[in-house]
Specification:
It is globular and about 35 Å long. It has helices at about 1-20, 40-55, 65-85, 100-115. The protein has one domain (about 1-115). Helix 1 (about 1-20) crosses helix 4 and helix 2 (about 40-55) crosses helix 3. It is mostly helical. It contains four helices and no strands. The protein is about 60% helix and about 0% strand.
Length: about 120
């Protein structure tokens, strides 16, 4: 189950990158699930679980959140995973919402909505 949840997260990420990234994205942004590093797979599954738990504890009322609120939740969960797996991450990896590029914000909001649509 964890693998499938992580795969859903990764597929939503790749779809968002392809939709919103200006120009040609870095290869690592669109690396297929089977080639994704283990830490990133574990992180994708963990964030999926966090979003799902958030939706559950709100009795589905997360549908009332704005896209920005949804995206912010995914972003902060992902940043926690970065700190868990990377001892001294680059500042861009842990950037606050306001400092994230627009394509990444939109992608994170799409990820939340994809997980929500599966419930």
């Amino acid at each position: 189950m964890q693998v499938e949840q992580g795969r859903v997260f990764r597929e939503a990420w790749i779809a968002g990158v392809k939709k919103y990234y200006p120009g040609e994205p870095k290869a690592s942004y669109i690396t297929p699930w089977d080639e994704t590093p283990d830490w990133e797979r574990a992180s994708a599954a963990a964030v999926y679980d966090q979003v799902r738990a958030f939706i559950d504890v709100s009795d589905g009322n997360t549908a009332k959140l704005t896209r920005e609120q949804k995206g912010r939740f995914v972003a902060i969960c992902w940043i926690a995973q970065i700190y868990k797996h990377i001892p001294d991450p680059k500042p861009a990896y842990v950037a606050d919402w306001a400092d994230m590029p627009q394509w990444q914000r939109e992608t994170d909001a799409d990820i939340f909505e994809r997980i929500q649509s599966e419930m």
